[in-house]
Amino acid sequence: MSERREGSLEAPTRHALDWKNPDFYDEEKLLTEMERVFDICHGCRRCVSLCHAFPTLFDLVDESDTMEVDGVDKKDYWKVVDHCYLCDLCFLTKCPYVPPHEWNIDFPHLMLQAKAVHYKNHGAKTRDRILSATDTVPKLAGIPIVAGVVNAMNANPGFRKLLENTLGVDHDAVIPKYTSKPLRKRIQPQPDARGEAAGPTTGKVALFATCYGNNNQPDIGEDLAAVFEHNGIPVTIAEKERCCGMPKLELGDLEAVAKAKEVNIPQLAKMIDNGWDIVAPIPSCVLMFKQELPLMFPDDEEVLKVRDHIYDPFEYLMLRHKAGKLNTDFKNSLGKVSYHVACHQRVQRIGNKTRELLQLVPDTEVQAIERCSGHDGTYAVKKEFHAISMKLVRPVARKVQQFEPDHLTSDCVMAGHHIAHALDNGLAAEHPMKLLRRAYGI
């Protein structure tokens, strides 16, 4: 580049994802755009500390004959794509050249396009298809007898070595346990419940259970229901639910995302029409409905309706607090809390609502850590990436160690477990909703 221009001071905006256009899958055009964007990233390098995608790119450039992007073999561009797990932080927190800047840089969605092109041309590894099958695999693993066997095998070092050698799932990575009684069997529908409106909220919520919350840690949803009902907010559950689509999005399987959308959106839109707000306890799922689906289907009115009525649970409670409707009669302090701020919550542009709410609890000190844990749902469990994920989580673990907290928490449950794994000192990760329930003493 002949000159460096100043970044835009205007608020970032996002273009719709033109994924149905045949040009979207033109690999030659994709590589040309990747070269353009990589050249700008090489001249800037602000994002070098966010994840491993940018160090991979810059190493390729620095080790090339020209020490410029034109010296990098385009076959190696895919190494950069492999390390991007679509956290979106570069777009929202670092890059000065995002739209409406004339350079029009959207690095995460360029990587998403690359993943989609690769998936269309080459498909996916068996391991990656299994890891992203968050609807089908839990149904099998959640059968009462099977759940116990699967959990026992996943805790067996010999089996984990076999799993690593056959499927490429790292033997040291944390794998979630399965439950034989999913959340959807624990929360009863309340079709006739009434809520008290406050601010933009109706005061009654339908819980999108999420794959993880339904099949792996249903206590998260139970804690959420207890806290919300303690605040006079009835909680029901959607009649039908599929995976939000985020694992398939990260794989580049956009058709699978569309199929999940066709199940979820009509159900959630119907709940909204009946006066319910939607909440989901996993930030990635909320982001899927708030951002990714609206960008994939910008003209779908029901998609936009769900976007405008789905909330992060702590965002929802703080909106109630702003309207004077939050119960602040806390019975127990929480002491010192190390709170890892999930990337997919940070990029929702709602502010740090979890920290704000936990700080309302008397005699509670919250240390907020705004740095990626390196987990990303599947990235940290893959053999070829696990060591890198452990390197990425190390600064987070170091901050926790220095703070010496009574509790470790993250809205991203898997990130919390990954941090606890890195600490290896007996401190377990807890969802912040569990901490809030403990503070209420309910």
Q: Can you offer a commentary on this structure?
A:
By secondary structure, the chain is an alpha/beta fold. The protein has four domains: 22-122; 126-167, no CATH class; 183-318, no CATH class; 328-440, Rossmann fold (3-Layer(aba) Sandwich). 49% of the residues lie in helices and 7% in strands. The protein is built from 21 helices and eight strands. Strand 7 (407-410), helix 20 and strand 8 (429-430) form a beta-alpha-beta unit. It starts with 26 loop residues before the first helix and ends with a helix. Mean pLDDT is 92; it is low at 1-5.
Distance between the termini: 60 Å
Q: What shape does the CA trace take?
A: globular
Instruction: Tell me the radius of gyration.
Output: 22 Å
Low-confidence stretches: 1-5
> Helix/strand/pairing class, anyone?
alpha/beta
- Proportion in β-strands: 5-15%
The tally of structural domains comes to 4
Sequence of strands across the biggest β-sheet: 2-1-3-4
Mean pLDDT: 92
- Helical amount: 40-55%
Order of helix and strand elements from N to C terminus:
HHHHHHHHHEHHEHHEHHEHEHHEHEHEH
Q: Total strand count, please?
A: 8
Largest sheet: 4 strands, parallel
Total helical elements: 21
InterPro entries: Cys_rich_dom (IPR004017)
Organism: Thiolapillus brandeum
Protein name: Cysteine-rich domain-containing protein
Domain Cysteine-rich: 205-290, 337-412
Quickly describe the structure:
This protein has 442 residues and is of the alpha/beta class. The chain is 49% helix and 7% strand.
